[in-house]
Amino acid sequence: MARTKHTASSISRSPRSTKTKKSKGSSSIRKRAAAVMGARSRPLPRPPKELAQAISSFSIPINRAEAVPEDFLVNHTLHLTYGAPEDLQVIDPDDKKAYTMCRVPVKQDGQVFGYVPLPFRYKDLWLELCYNVVAYATVWKLWNDECKKGTAKQMRMATVCRQNSGTMLVTHMHARLMAVDQLVAMRHDVKPGAERVPILDEWKVRHVRDWFGMTFREASGEGQEFLLADPTSTENKAFFGKLIKSSPIFTSLQGNAERDWAVENEGLDMMAPPEDLQTWIAGEIQGFKEKFHAILKPQAYSELNRKSKYFYTRHEDGARLPQRWHEGHHPPPHYWTKGQWDWMAKGDVAIAYRRFYLLTSACLAGNDYWQKPLDLVYDVLSRDVEYEEFLSVINSISIILQESPRWDQVKIARQGLWMGEMTWRESVDLLRQIWELTGRITGPWQEEGEDVYTPYG
Question: What does pTM read for this prediction?
Answer without folding.
Answer: 0.81
